[in-house]
Amino acid sequence: MATATLRIDLSALCNNWRSLNALAQGKAGAVVKADAYGLGLAPVAKALARAGARSFFVAVAEEGVALRRILGKGPQISVFSGHMAGDTGLIRDARLTPMLNSIDQMLRHVEALPGHPFGVQLDTGMNRLGMEEAEWTALREVALDQRPTLIMSHLACADAPDHAMNARQLQVFRQMTDGLKVPRSLAATGGTLLGPDYHFDMVRPGIGLYGGLPYVDARPVVSLDIPVIQIRDVAVGETVGYANAWVARGPSRVATISAGYADGIIRAMGPRAHLHTGSSAVPVIGRISMDMIGVDVTGLAQEPEQLELIGPHQSVDTVAGFADTIGYEILTSLGARHKRIYA
Ligand SMILES: *Cc1c(COP(=O)(O)O)cnc(C)c1O
């Protein structure tokens, strides 16, 4: 076995959903955009549906079509990008619920698919998607007449609980929606953890389901073990890898492992990255190549057959830190070449 093994613990995933659902004042949906954050849409969505999730969120209509095939008729599938030009057939046939972002989208939707369910996305300060206050004021009566399934907005700084932006967005969301008889949703994972004021009728966790920060109590879902292809002795002064980036300061044992930046192991993490064998940490040395990485295993009592990049000794977020990025990017970068095992 020369490819790395990515293990995805579906029972930990379901546990994370249940915990967030129990924490929520209303219900918890499940965000499964980007192939369920890189972990595989079909196994992830089926497991979550079995655990009780009834409301799923995707980024674009095409993902919604794939999800409808996987889940069948029952669950609600909402699309964050709304009703874009060219999406009408997909939305109708797969019975997707677009989260409409603008007056243009609202007009497109009610003209093309009168009576078809939709939600409304409001901008409360992030300036990424959604109707602004003036737009919403102009459209509100018309929109409410058509009974939206959900009114939602998204927080820009929810992973920083003390950030003043959170309270500001909450206040704007309340101003725009208080008193309306439509279910509301403001919180993703971070917002759910800010407390019940942020929950409304539906929370929309993504990363928390997959075991990533800011959900510190999440059960880890992913592990990644990379097989060792070869171990060699390297003498003082010899170099390892492209550009001679690492020079042996003493007699060394160097393992070459079978994964690289083509597998989502971001090249920039090289200088800081470690892997584990049991509780021993071993550093990456030299440049990360497309399909291979050099690791200094000098001094290990036993020659490892594989090394753990993500697992019990090192979380997704620790690995993200090696590359100055976030767990989301590590998960969604995981490549197609890993052997995937769903437990
Ligand atoms: C991605 C996304 C989510 C989920 O966010 P997490 O931080 O992964 O929980 C929720 N809502 C919207 C609008 C999103 O784009």
From TrEMBL:
<feature type="active site" description="Proton acceptor; specific for D-alanine">
    <location>
        <position position="33"/>
    </location>
</feature>
<comment type="function">
    <text>Catalyzes the interconversion of L-alanine and D-alanine. May also act on other amino acids.</text>
</comment>
<dbReference type="Pfam" id="PF00842">
    <property type="entry name" value="Ala_racemase_C"/>
</dbReference>
<dbReference type="GO" id="GO:0030632">
    <property type="term" value="P:D-alanine biosynthetic process"/>
</dbReference>
<feature type="modified residue" description="N6-(pyridoxal phosphate)lysine">
    <location>
        <position position="33"/>
    </location>
</feature>
<comment type="pathway">
    <text>Amino-acid biosynthesis; D-alanine biosynthesis; D-alanine from L-alanine: step 1/1.</text>
</comment>
<feature type="active site" description="Proton acceptor; specific for L-alanine">
    <location>
        <position position="242"/>
    </location>
</feature>
<dbReference type="InterPro" id="IPR011079">
    <property type="entry name" value="Ala_racemase_C"/>
</dbReference>
<dbReference type="InterPro" id="IPR020622">
    <property type="entry name" value="Ala_racemase_pyridoxalP-BS"/>
</dbReference>
<comment type="similarity">
    <text>Belongs to the alanine racemase family.</text>
</comment>
<dbReference type="GO" id="GO:0030170">
    <property type="term" value="F:pyridoxal phosphate binding"/>
</dbReference>
<keyword id="KW-0663">Pyridoxal phosphate</keyword>
<feature type="domain" description="Alanine racemase C-terminal">
    <location>
        <begin position="221"/>
        <end position="343"/>
    </location>
</feature>
<keyword id="KW-0413">Isomerase</keyword>
<feature type="binding site">
    <location>
        <position position="128"/>
    </location>
    <ligand>
        <name>substrate</name>
    </ligand>
</feature>
<dbReference type="GO" id="GO:0005829">
    <property type="term" value="C:cytosol"/>
</dbReference>
<protein>
    <recommendedName>
        <fullName>Alanine racemase</fullName>
        <ecNumber>5.1.1.1</ecNumber>
    </recommendedName>
</protein>
<dbReference type="GO" id="GO:0008784">
    <property type="term" value="F:alanine racemase activity"/>
</dbReference>
<dbReference type="InterPro" id="IPR001608">
    <property type="entry name" value="Ala_racemase_N"/>
</dbReference>
<feature type="binding site">
    <location>
        <position position="290"/>
    </location>
    <ligand>
        <name>substrate</name>
    </ligand>
</feature>
<dbReference type="InterPro" id="IPR000821">
    <property type="entry name" value="Ala_racemase"/>
</dbReference>
<dbReference type="Pfam" id="PF01168">
    <property type="entry name" value="Ala_racemase_N"/>
</dbReference>
